[in-house]
Amino acid sequence: MAKSKYEYVKEFETDDRMLRNVYVLVRIDGKGFHKFSQTHDFAKPNDVRGINLMNHAARCVMNELDDILLAFGESDEYSFLFRKSTDLYQRRESKIVSTVVSLFTSAYVYYWNDYFTDLKRPLYPPVFDGRAVLYPSEVEVKDYFAWRQADTHINNLFNTSFWALVEEGGLTPKAAEARLCGTDSKDKNEMLFTEFNTNYSKLPAMYRKGSVLLREQILKDEDKDAIIPTLPETLPGSKSAKVVPALDTATTVPGLQSGPDPISGSVSEAPSGQSSPIAVDSPVVSQETIMQEGSSTSSSEGKKRSIDANEAERHDAEEGPAAKKEAPAFKRMKKGVVIDHIDIIGEKFWTGRGAYILAPEKKKKLRP
Ligand code: ATP
Ligand code: ATP
Ligand code: MG
Ligand code: MG
């Protein structure tokens, strides 16, 4: 096709292809979600509908972009790790970041009413920003996720303590903040336990550890757009939390299993938005195993999702030979996006799946 005389303006576009052979990490964050959560009457400190909607939007992003191998979400943010060798949009930064942000935001609005059932759509359009960060080696990638999960813990422990003081203790927000000033995690755990009868380590893992999205084996008939179930409980210490119906007992609810307190050491903490003072080898890593810690989730129909073929085979064995004859589980498995609420700080998480997630770039011919 003949070029128009205006075509030259295309030359003003900058080449923003990101460096090859490094990890691409995209993080999105809600703009002004402090206000957004207030306007939409989010339960404090954790509105389970809001978290599940974030998780659903993130899963839509992963379903669309195969090169994302791992995602981690907390509060109003989500981080997406691309495979090192990704060639999506020839690694053009603006194309990749804008696609992730746009897809996430539209999914958040599209699925809004599935979670906030009493409100047809948000009262105003939510906005998310996004950025790409390049990490040269798996050390930084592992530390990145450790940083975000440590942040989840610090913020959640602070917020849980804060709202307990305000809603149950009757303190003003200012007084509650003053009360928590200078306290470490041990002090806060102690205060929650003695004054509010709350064992922090027994709160849902989804609140304490955030959400991890992985590509694992799932049942083939699993609905990729299945609504992520709502936790059948309210958060202790929060009067504003809404009671939601219990799930089918056959389903496995992520995050309900409790584990040891992820941070048992004394850490001087800041509430939010500040970099974590926790060292990589701090005792944040719990002894929980992946399977114990709610490694499966379920659709609204209550279909059971298993994490790997072995688990599915065991499931079949439990159901008896008739069920096995009907549809052998191992034939119905495929790779899918699953959600979990596990420790990603420390080597335990990466053992077994690190090789897949952090696979080095294959030698390939570069485009001329
Ligand atoms: P910025 O635009 O700079 O990101 P922000 O208001 O979004 O500002 P953040 O530091 O990103 O501030 O914090 C997000 C806020 O959203 C937190 O204050 C948190 O209280 C609120 N929030 C997000 N998700 C939830 C949720 N599921 N339940 C309750 N509150 C939530
Ligand atoms: P890419 O992902 O590379 O942008 P694309 O499929 O979006 O690919 P574009 O070059 O952006 O391709 O072209 C947009 C296409 O969308 C056009 O080919 C056009 O057919 C279609 N389209 C967009 N808006 C309309 C519209 N209002 N009515 C009919 N067709 C439309
Ligand atoms: Mg924000
Ligand atoms: Mg945020």
Automatic annotation (TrEMBL):
The region called Disordered is annotated at 251-327
Instruction: For this UniProt record, give its keywords in alphabetical order, as a comma-separated list.
Output: GTP-binding, Magnesium, Metal-binding, Nucleotide-binding, Nucleotidyltransferase, Transferase, tRNA processing
Biased composition range(s): Basic and acidic residues: 301-327
UniProt: GTP binding residues: D29, G30, K31, G32, F33, H34, S75, D76
Query: What residues does Mg(2+) 1 bind to?
Result: D29, G30, D76
Query: Key word 4Fe-4S present in the record?
Result: no
First-tier enzyme category under EC: transferase
Outline the extent of the tRNAHis guanylyltransferase catalytic domain.
6-136
| UniProt GO BP | tRNA modification
Polar residues bias spans? 265-277
> Could you say which residues bind Mg(2+) 2 here?
D29, D76
- What does the record say about how the cofactor binds? Binds 2 magnesium ions per subunit.
Q: Which residues form the Thg1 C-terminal domain?
A: 140-222
Residues that span the membrane, as ranges: none
Q: Does the keyword GTP-binding apply?
A: yes
Q: Which cofactor does it need?
A: Mg(2+)
Q: Name one GO molecular function term.
A: GTP binding
- EC identifiers of the protein: 2.7.7.79
Q: Which InterPro entries match?
A: Thg1_C_dom, tRNAHis_GuaTrfase_cat, tRNAHis_GuaTrfase_Thg1, tRNAHis_GuaTrfase_Thg1_sf
In the record, the note on similarity to other proteins reads:
Belongs to the tRNA(His) guanylyltransferase family.
Instruction: Name it.
Output: tRNA(His) guanylyltransferase
Instruction: Supply the source organism for this entry.
Output: Linnemannia hyalina
